[in-house]
Amino acid sequence: xxxxxxxxxxxxxxxxxxxxxxxxxxxxxxxxxxxxxxxxxxxxxxxxxxxxxxxxxxxxxxxxxxxxxxxxxxxxxxxxxxxxxxxxxxxxxxxxxxxxxxxxxxxxxxxxxxxxxxxxxxxxxxxxxxxxxxxxxxxxxxxxxxxxxxxxxxxxxxxxxxxxxxxxxxxxxx
Length: 174
Description:
Layout: H1 2-9, E1 17-19, H2 23-32, E2 41-43, H3 52-72, H4 98-110, E3 115-121, E4 124-130, H5 143-158, E5 163-167
Parallel strand pairs: 1-2, 4-5
Antiparallel strand pairs: 3-4
């Protein structure tokens, strides 16, 4: 999704293809880049276990949607001015509480069988990533991508000046 958005920012038509469980994750990623209504195509999940014939069938099935996305030109430059935070759909103009922020972000992670909680102490918010199924750990965005997403959402919804930390079990030393 991020690559497609970056191409669009450069004025190059692009089409993102996501597997169905990652719809919410894709929407969040696009939204945080200023493309809240960025269209994308979806295919059934999983794809890694498909045979070559099944991959070709999936590609054939999604081709009309990709062609439409590339030719429609619907993606445009973000409406926000450069550097202006993107506000989440349905937000209340930055007055949302931490619980609302956590829930909207956790919704995206649940597609990957993960969850999120948070605790605020002063100006620091510690998000805790919960991945109960180790097999799904590699499907969840890495910390290096999650932290900027968390920080962006916190800045947009709760205002600047808060520090975000992520407790990620994949990076914890045991």
